[in-house]
Design brief:
By secondary structure, this protein is α+β, with helices and mostly antiparallel strands. The protein is about 20% helix and about 20% strand. It is built from 5 helices and 9 strands. The strands form 2 sheets. It has a 7-stranded mixed β-sheet. Strand 8 and strand 9 form a beta hairpin. The two termini are about 20 Å apart.
Length: about 220
């Protein structure tokens, strides 16, 4: 997906085509045709300049009605960083992303503990695996009400938590103040993933790591 202000679309396209050898295409925010697509990626960036709230305007783009129907039909949807924010604003995922607790923009490597492998996005991992993936955001602190958090935990819908290299979800390992160190979640059906870290930035060794590739390889398994 390409919204005004999106800038990680090229990175995601590169991973899909050059790294994974798949067919991919850009979809402009005013388009409504998702025919022939197996997985939709809402990349990071600053859609509509993050005016009002992050993702608040992009949520009303014409393409989002089509994305919602695509997800309802079982299609795979990944929202990365700003894409995660858009999915929450659109109601495709519960909760909201708020300003980092230290009120600073953070661009750094973080460690993520894989909380479940029972999703199309984590099947190439083992539960408890620690993935090293970079973040780049100023409003990435995940918040949800207590009932929503309880449902996420009970249903196994928390995909990733910020953690130490040893896999402990400590306060110091939390880069933005997210409740319960949550870095990524899936919807109740499991076919929509939202995550703040950028897996597309670590799919090649030249970039400093390849852990992000395991998320995309999981998607390929699901599509197969």
């Amino acid at each position: 997906m390409v919204f005004p202000g999106t800038w990680s679309d090229g990175d995601c396209y590169h991973v899909a085509t050059s790294v994974l050898g798949q067919d991919a295409r850009y979809v402009w925010h005013k388009d409504t045709d998702l025919s022939g697509i197996d997985c939709v990626v809402l990349p990071g960036g600053f859609s509509y300049g993050d005016y009002l709230r992050t993702g608040a305007i992009a949520r009303f783009s014409p393409v989002m009605d089509t994305v919602e129907r695509f997800a309802e039909a079982g299609g795979l949807v990944i929202g990365i960083c700003n894409g995660f924010q858009i999915l929450c604003e659109a109601g495709l995922l519960p909760g909201v992303l708020t300003r980092n607790h230290h009120v600073q923009f953070r661009c750094q490597w973080v460690d993520l503990r894989v909380e479940t492998t029972n999703t199309p996005f984590t099947s190439a991992c083992e539960r408890g695996d620690v993935l090293r993936i970079p973040i780049s955001h100023g409003e990435g602190s995940y918040y949800a009400d207590p009932d929503t958090l309880a449902k996420l935990n009970a249903g196994g819908h928390v995909a990733f938590r910020y953690c130490t290299p040893d896999g402990e979800p400590t306060t110091d390992a939390n880069p933005n103040g997210s409740l319960e160190n949550i870095a990524g979640i899936v919807n109740a059906r499991g076919n929509v993933l939202g995550m703040m870290p950028h897996p597309e930035r670590c799919c090649e060794a030249v970039l400093g790591g390849t852990d992000g590739r395991r998320i995309f390889e999981s998607v390929l398994r699901a599509m197969a």
